[in-house]
Amino acid sequence: MAVIHFNFLSKMLGMMTNVTVIIPTFSFTDSYYGRDQVYVNGMKYQTLYLLHGGSGDDCDYIHNTNIVRYAEENKVAVIMPNDYNQVYTDAVDGPAQYYTFLVDELPKVMGAIFPISQKREDTFVAGLSMGSHGAMKMGITNPDKFAAVLCMSGSATRPGVRTVVPTKDGVPDFDCPLPPIPLGKIARLIEEPDFIKGTVNDVFGIAKANAEAGKELPEMFFRVGDCDHALFRATRAEKDLREWGYKTRIEVVKGMGHEWDLWDDTLRLALSEWLPLKHRILYPGEE
Predict the structure, then answer these.
(1) Is the pLDDT of residue 95 over 80?
(2) pLDDT tens-digit profile of 196-250?
(3) Which residues pair with residue 16 across a beta bridge?
């Protein structure tokens, strides 16, 4: 298993940026089954873009979950970019175009350097908390690029739906004051109807329009704890998407909050069972 900490100059961000990449390699399991010829010219991997939450970075999943082992077991490449608390959204002033970087520049760079498949059927995106906003945004606004989206403890932000609702045992407390969200100006802007109108930031508007237009839609997966402040946000998103015609799946985990134990277990479950993975390397002629 290769874990690569990759640093490069991004044109869309206007600065050097970090990306952590996991690439499955030859393992003892391969030797047990007599797979000696693992490395073949032209081989590819299905790929998961995995987005961190607020105040995190590209190494969060390496430090706090077993994603390296899960990637190896399921033969999937994992790409983890750094968002610098910009909510996976293009800046309104300055050169930092975080959304455009994610959906345009990053896949081109990764596809040119690493053996990853660029096919829709082999490409997935996931994220937790703030990263669930980025993941849903990427998948909904680019249904031709992503076959499935996994939202852990959240969904895309939208005006009129509270991002944070204190919850206990599945019961949200809407009377509790909304705590400040320490993510800066852009996090507040994407909750403004006038700011998102007619842009890629209107994720739910685009989701509904895509369904009405009969476009091929990504599968949508949600997992959240019943004591998680993101419970209302996640369940409301799943319900609306399902009613619009999306194939969805949601699991509410009893006794769990906004925590790494939930997210680690969700990644294990998603990679082994939920996401449409082939669980093998894609060799030439066997895709």
Answers:
(1) yes
(2) 999 999 999 999 999 999 999 999 999 999 999 999 999 999 999 999 999 999 9
(3) 9
pLDDT 10s digits, 120-144: 999 999 999 999 999 999 999 999 9
Pairing relation of β-strands 15-23 and 46-51? Answer: unpaired
**Considering only CA atoms, which of 52, 49, 50, 54 is closest in space to residue 164?**
54
| Integer CA distances (angstroms), 192 to 55, 57, 189, 197, in order | 22, 26, 5, 9
With residue 93 as reference, give the H or E element that holds it. Answer: none
Q: What is the pTM of this model?
A: 0.95
The Cα-based distances of 211 to 11, 68, 103, 184, 240 in angstroms read 33, 35, 21, 32, 11
Residues 6+ apart with CB under 8 A from 11: 105
2-10: strand order across its sheet: 2-10, 15-23, 76-81, 46-51, 123-128, 148-152, 219-225, 248-253
Let me know: does 258 contact 229? Beta carbons within 8 Å.
yes
Q: How far apart are CA 91 and CA 88, in angstroms?
A: 9
Angle formed at CA 242 by CA 237 and CA 245, multiple of 5 degrees: 130
Which residues neighbour 267 within 8 Å (Cβ) at sequence distance 6 or greater?
A: 61, 65, 66, 67, 70, 126, 152
Retrieve residue 30's tokens.
């391969």
Looking at the chain, how many residues does it have? 287
